[in-house]
Design the sequence.
């Protein structure tokens, strides 16, 4: 039976120890800063914020290109001839990365592409669902695994509050951010993935400690999240007391595995410092 290899982009923000432990292959996206192109994962996040403080400019990001995907897939195939690749990709509604993967895979065999319609922890939750399923059922047929992953895609729920609206506004990825109007810098919007698009669904006011707790409670009341896993997300600068409080809330709600994930350089370029988010799969 052919070995199944799971792949995704760096925009999933999966920690290195997780990808190494579960043999998930990750292809990097890009951050452009000071007219230099950095692979996501090679650029320390703190340098993005230092760059902004120094220049008042915000880096830009670009998708993994077709050539990079071709090399990525071919290398996996060369190292493991006969393997089957299941690629779980960053939402096609906010990046050209998934379309590039589709083009790259046209001339290759035994590659399945799944548009996760999600980013960061929402994408990671889907990848980890696939990891857990593959580890429980190592002889599962690729088509069956793909079917189960595609079924769970619309059940992945991500909600976050960015740390800096200046970064979010500059990124231009939130489709209805303009509705926040003139009070933009005084509001902390709740951002969610709706049909694969980043959408501002609610406005919060107040300190990040209060906003984070409100977001956590509202999210857990709104969605019937599987208690097996919950993913808590942060960008550098989020206060440790907030992280401790969010962990306690998750424990109070009976979650078995609470995984904190730091936003990488690509995601941090859009979310800014001090952001908080939650992701999980609905039952």
Sequence:
């Amino acid at each position: 039976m052919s070995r199944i290899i799971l792949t995704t982009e760096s925009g999933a923000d999966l920690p290195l120890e997780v990808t190494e432990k579960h043999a998930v292959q990750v292809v990097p996206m890009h951050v452009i800063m000071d007219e230099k192109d950095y692979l996501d994962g090679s650029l320390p996040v703190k340098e993005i914020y230092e760059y902004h403080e120094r220049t008042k400019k915000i880096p830009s990001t670009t998708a993994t290109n077709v050539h990079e995907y071709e090399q990525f897939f071919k290398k996996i195939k060369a190292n493991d001839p006969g393997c089957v690749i299941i690629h779980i990709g960053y939402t096609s509604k906010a990046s050209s990365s998934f379309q590039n993967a589709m083009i790259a895979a046209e001339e290759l065999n035994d590659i399945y592409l799944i548009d996760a319609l999600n980013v960061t922890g929402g994408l990671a939750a889907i990848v980890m669902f696939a990891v857990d399923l593959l580890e429980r059922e190592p002889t599962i047929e690729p088509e069956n695994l793909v079917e189960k992953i595609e079924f769970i895609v619309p059940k992945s729920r991500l909600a976050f509050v960015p740390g800096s609206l200046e970064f979010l506004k500059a990124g231009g990825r939130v489709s209805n951010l303009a509705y926040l109007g003139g009070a933009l810098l005084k509001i902390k919007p709740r951002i969610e993935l709706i049909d694969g698009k980043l959408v501002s669904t609610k406005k919060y006011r107040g300190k990040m400690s209060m906003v984070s707790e409100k977001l956590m409670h509202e999210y857990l009341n709104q969605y019937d999240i599987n208690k097996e896993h919950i993913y808590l997300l942060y960008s550098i600068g989020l206060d440790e007391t907030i992280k401790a409080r969010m962990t306690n809330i998750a424990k109070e709600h009976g979650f078995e595995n609470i995984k904190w994930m730091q936003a990488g350089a690509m995601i941090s370029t859009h979310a800014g410092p001090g952001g908080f988010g939650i992701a999980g799969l609905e039952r």
About this structure: The radius of gyration is 18 Å.
